[in-house]
Specification:
Layout: H1 9-12, H2 14-40, E1 42-45, E2 55-58, H3 67-80, H4 84-87, H5 93-118, H6 125-142, H7 147-174
Antiparallel strand pairs: 1-2
Length: 182
């Protein structure tokens, strides 16, 4: 539904939309932090004792007991696609599948070889593998055919158009005021 000036809400509120898209781009670091705490068996809780925010509390048995193991997994994820550069690429399905095959083999080998050393329970091995692998898969498919870059470009254009429209409107509004000199 168009607003009174003929623009659609997404055009008028372009900055809010672009902020959301930028949050998605920057979300990978948050995702890595969340995964790190999940691997440690921690959950985020807020209460009266922490009015400025909550804290991470160990609530479950860790999926990976070794800090070395958690660090190695996070490093591997950053290297294999959970970084801001990978999201801004233009990959086709074949390239994504090739990268995922390589990652799949490396991850499976690493988890299998380090399972005992890192304290991964045998019955949690498949779940741990699937949780980590799906995060990388999702990150790569965000970049499929340059979709994220196209989205950012569209949002930027809408924001730019919205700002032009606002400046034109403000100049037009100036004409509505009566000139005190004439």
């Amino acid at each position: 539904m168009a607003t009174e000036n003929g623009a659609y809400p997404s055009q008028v509120y372009g900055f809010q939309e672009s902020d959301q898209i930028l949050k998605i781009v920057l979300e990978n670091e948050d995702l890595l932090q969340l995964l790190e705490h999940e691997l440690r068996g921690e959950v985020y809780e807020s209460d009266e004792d922490h009015p400025m925010g909550g804290c991470w509390i160990k609530k479950y048995n860790p999926i990976i007991e070794s800090e070395e193991g958690i660090s190695e997994i996070l490093r591997m994820l950053r290297f294999m696609g959970l970084n801001k550069v990978s999201l801004l690429t233009n990959l086709d399905s074949e390239q994504i599948n090739e990268k995922l095959k390589v990652f799949e083999m490396k991850l499976a080998d690493l988890l299998f070889l380090k399972r005992k050393e890192w304290g991964i329970q045998k019955d949690n091995l498949a779940m741990t593998y699937n949780m980590i692998w799906s995060i990388v898969e999702d990150a790569y498919f965000r970049a499929k055919d340059g979709n994220l870059v196209k989205t950012l470009r569209t949002v930027y254009q809408k924001t730019d158009y919205s700002q032009e429209d606002k400046s034109k409107k403000s100049l037009i509004d100036l004409g509505k005021f009566k000139n005190p000199y004439g």
